[in-house]
Amino acid sequence: xxxxxxxxxxxxxxxxxxxxxxVDLFEGLRMAFADLDEKGLDVLIPYxxxxxxxxxxxxxxxxxxxxxxxxVRQSPEPTS
Length: 80
Prior knowledge:
By secondary structure, this protein is mostly helical. About 50% of the residues lie in helices and about 0% in strands. It has helices at about 1-15, 25-40, 55-65.
């Protein structure tokens, strides 16, 4: 439960901080995880709870992939 809760908070954190940047999902999650490495799990919510467990990056990406409400933007075609 601690890891599942952290996945939810991490998706919210990623959406608020990195979703609108022009980076792909993996790079945005890497930046969010870099924040976690630097500041700890307390960065995810404004108060300390003490019952979160760090998930792996692919578990967070998998949870995002399974979201039924997910809308995906097509990236622009690369120019040659």
